[in-house]
């Protein structure tokens, strides 16, 4: 159920929340009546992709549930920057317990609501990539396997940012983190399978799995709305760039998220009961270098010596995604991008 | 209703009468029969409006309990030994959030070396977790304490651990007066949470508290927990009025008054101790027993009162603090800090080693002549450990 991008011919862009649209087609974020689930005044860094993603996702979830929603949060940046006692930025019913147990806590909330005959109230659990793919992975898999009525949202910024940018199971190959430093013959993170949580979620054959980024608000909102049409375990994986950890400019958060999708490094798709049902085609294909160069975590690939081998390896990963998720179509510009290794 | 049942079955039936709304558990011996019994009641539709969640770990069990309790559901789980340790982070979180979860701990040793038999190492390791801890002497008391635990927990908004000796109680069949539904309904009102996750009145639960307020928050937890020392005896009195039997409370004295030697213990070993004490008293010995039912918060005043005339105190405990010795004994010593009464610590029954009447009889005779050392490991094979110490030392 991929959403059709709205191109505003008046301004020639794919701008979001544009007033040129009829009200019923506008994004939830453009609605002054939106919940503002994560309201202003919190302590996230400038340009924080997670803060953006959380507000987008939860406002959409509140719209979809008509405000009947309880959110559970894992420990991490989102929890820390939103609730420094006695302040709270949450304007929804919100519970934080521990780092590794958000899926199980959400199961408990859902079980209580079921026992009380209040299944009109829906449950959303959320955590960063560390909470999701590493420390809370067992609990998440258990929640999936039991098909508990919970939407779990992972805000993936590809490392442990709250503790100072250490590697997680979701850190991409070659990326520099505080525990995979840019030193030695193979600087940065190792090349391996990593933990591809969307695919692992699909293997559980849960009703709904989707990926999205903060670069495409409409797509993100539509996926939250779609997720809420199902009962049972659902998983939404959001790519949320982190200026601090990625070494990017605060103003480039959305741009980098877009380049991640347009390079093929981050495929945007939906799956139902384990089967891929849609993928969002790349509009204008770019080489991975366009994405990597904006982030100092990949700086060692370009200086002091250009690491063509590593860049080629990353390009091959992107190419594989493009093939696997069918990310180019007739409308894709630069679809026949130069072969890996020949990018200037 | 009087029934000849296994202790686990008695507890499962008592818990079911409390009308829990969410039960979550992961299997671990010797807790399994309790949750098996409850899962059957839920599946068969005999326990209505209740969700039984088969979780993937004890950490998840306590986490599910946190979520459901915070959503206003009466919540129960059970564990033991390694399982309790695996959920520790969530155990502390549940008490910190003030969630009135009731959990059975079917007491069992902790490895390594792995050992599935009974002692108190598991629950004793959680004595500082902020949970109220009650220890059952018999299966009757185990069943009754669960009914009381829900009321104590919900009236104080604190979690309660009901500790019952694994195998010795959980797997022993004896006559138990199973609480009747009407009695429990008269005793235990529906759960009214102090704060609850509700979309119509949204609150944030689990905020980060910094140095400016953390001490105050922790002090409040302490102050709130101390209220249990008044609450627990009242709940036990109410229980007696409705059920016409004595169960629970802070401590239970057995001929303590005027006894020169007082033996202090927790749990099922009290039965064996009382048998030995009966025989010694028949022979004219001045000996009594103080059973501790409420171990956390520690009932300092009640203990002090019961021990004020003792000439010597023997503390028998099924766990110990490596590098120090007795855990219960240290609390007893604090209670009577202004007395010069000698306190003899006896570590017994570790990893399921039987605590026999013969050994206790010999132990108490040594106590009468004050020839006990400050720390005794009952029935320790001293020759064996001496050889091992020498062998290790020679390396």
Jot down its keywords:
heterodimer; A: 344 residues; alpha/beta; Rossmann fold; eight-stranded mixed sheet; 31% helix; disordered C terminus; B: 395 residues; seven-stranded mixed sheet; six-stranded mixed sheet; 15 helices; 16 strands; 41% helix; globular
Explained architecture:
- The complex is a heterodimer of chains A (344) and B (395).
- With 344 residues, chain A is an alpha/beta fold.
- Chain A contains eleven helices and eight strands.
- Chain A has an eight-stranded mixed β-sheet with strand order 2-1-3-4-6-5-7-8, with helices on both faces.
- In chain A, helix 3 packs parallel to helix 5 (137-146).
- Chain A is globular and about 60 Å long.
- By secondary structure, chain B is an alpha/beta fold.
- Chain B folds into two domains: 2-242, Thiamin diphosphate (ThDP)-binding fold, Pyr/PP domains (Rossmann fold), CATH 3.40.50; 254-383, Rossmann fold.
- In chain B, the strands form three sheets. Chain B has a seven-stranded mixed β-sheet with strand order 3-2-4-5-7-6-13, sandwiched between helices.
- In chain B, helix 3 (58-70) packs parallel to helix 5, helix 11 crosses helix 14 and helix 12 (300-307) packs across helix 13 (328-335).
- The N and C termini of chain B lie far apart (62 Å).
- Classes of the chains: A alpha/beta (344), B alpha/beta (395).
- At the A-B interface, strand 1, strand 2, helix 3 and helix 5 of A face strand 3, helix 3, helix 5 and strand 9 of B.
């Amino acid at each position: 159920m991929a959403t059709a991008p709205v191109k505003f011919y008046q301004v020639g862009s794919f701008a979001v929340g544009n007033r040129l649209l009829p009200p019923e087609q506008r994004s939830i974020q453009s609605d002054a009546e939106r919940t503002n689930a994560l309201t202003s005044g919190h302590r996230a860094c400038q340009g924080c992709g997670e803060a953006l993603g959380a507000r987008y996702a939860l406002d959409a979830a509140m719209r979809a549930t008509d405000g009947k929603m309880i959110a559970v949060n894992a420990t991490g940046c989102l929890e820390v920057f939103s609730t420094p006692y006695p302040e709270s930025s949450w304007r929804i019913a919100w519970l934080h317990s521990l780092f590794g147990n958000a899926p199980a806590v959400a199961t408990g909330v859902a079980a209580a609501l079921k026992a009380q005959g209040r299944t009109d109230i829906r449950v959303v659990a959320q955590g960063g990539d560390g909470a999701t793919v590493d420390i809370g992975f067992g609990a998440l898999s258990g929640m999936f396997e039991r098909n508990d009525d919970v939407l779990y949202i992972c805000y993936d910024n590809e490392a442990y940012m709250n503790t100072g940018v250490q590697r997680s199971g979701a850190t991409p190959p070659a990326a520099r983190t505080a525990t995979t430093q840019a030193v030695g013959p193979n600087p940065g993170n190792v090349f391996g399978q990593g933990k591809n949580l969307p695919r692992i979620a699909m293997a559980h054959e849960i009703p709904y799995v989707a990926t999205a980024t903060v670069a495409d608000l409409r797509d993100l909102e539509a996926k939250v709305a779609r997720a809420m049409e199902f009962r049972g375990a659902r998983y939404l994986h959001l790519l949320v760039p982190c200026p601090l950890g990625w070494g990017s400019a605060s103003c480039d958060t959305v741009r980098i998220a877009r380049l991640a999708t347009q390079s093929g490094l981050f495929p945007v798709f939906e799956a139902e009961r384990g089967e891929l049902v849609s993928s969002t085609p790349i509009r204008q294909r770019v080489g991975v270098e366009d994405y990597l160069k904006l982030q100092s975590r990949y700086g060692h690939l370009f200086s002091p010596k250009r690491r063509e081998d590593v860049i080629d390896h990353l390009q091959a990963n992107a190419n594989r995604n493009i093939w696997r998720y069918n990310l180019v179509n007739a409308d894709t510009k630069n679809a026949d991008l130069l072969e890996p290794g020949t990018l200037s | 209703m009087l029934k000849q049942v296994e202790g686990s079955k008695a507890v499962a039936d008592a818990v079911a009468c409390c009308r829990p709304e969410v039960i979550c558990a992961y299997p671990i011996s010797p807790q399994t029969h309790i949750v098996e019994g409850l899962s059957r009641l839920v599946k068969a539709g005999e326990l209505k409006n209740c969700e039984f969640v088969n979780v993937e770990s004890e950490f998840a069990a306590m986490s599910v309990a946190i979520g459901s309790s915070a959503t206003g559901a009466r919540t129960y789980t059970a564990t033991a030994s390694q399982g309790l340790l695996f959920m520790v982070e969530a155990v502390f979180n549940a008490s910190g959030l003030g969630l009135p979860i009731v959990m059975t701990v079917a007491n069992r040793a902790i490895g390594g070396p792995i050992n599935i038999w009974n002692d108190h190492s598991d629950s004793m390791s959680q004595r500082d977790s902020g949970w109220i801890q009650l220890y059952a002497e018999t299966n009757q008391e185990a069943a009754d304490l669960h009914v009381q635990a829900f009321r104590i927990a919900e009236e104080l908004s604190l979690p309660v651990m009901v500790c019952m000796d694994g195998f010795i109680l959980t797997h022993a069949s004896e006559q138990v007066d199973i609480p009747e539904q009407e009695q429990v309904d008269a005793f235990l009102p529906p759960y009214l949470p102090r704060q609850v996750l509700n979309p119509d009145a949204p609150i944030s639960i689990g905020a980060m508290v910094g140095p400016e307020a953390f001490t105050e928050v922790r002090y409040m937890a302490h102050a709130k927990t101390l209220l249990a020392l008044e609450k627990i005896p009242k709940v036990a009195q109410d229980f007696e009025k409705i059920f016409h039997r004595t169960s629970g409370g802070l401590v239970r004295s057995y001929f303590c008054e005027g006894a020169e030697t007082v033996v202090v213990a927790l749990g099922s070993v009290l039965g064996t101790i009382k048998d030995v004490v009966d025989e010694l008293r028949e022979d004219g010995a001045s000996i009594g027993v103080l059973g501790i039912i409420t171990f956390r918060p520690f009932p300092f005043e009640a203990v002090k009162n019961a021990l004020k005339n003792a000439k010597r105190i023997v503390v028998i405990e099924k766990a110990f603090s490596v590098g120090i010795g007795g855990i219960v004994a240290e609390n007893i010593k604090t209670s009577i800090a202004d007395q010069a009464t000698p306190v003899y610590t006896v570590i017994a029954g570790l990893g399921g080693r039987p605590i026999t009447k013969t050994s206790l009889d010999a132990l108490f005779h040594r106590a009468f002549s004050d020839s006990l050392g400050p720390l005794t490991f009952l029935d320790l094979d001293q020759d064996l450990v001496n050889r091992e110490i020498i062998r290790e030392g020679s390396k």
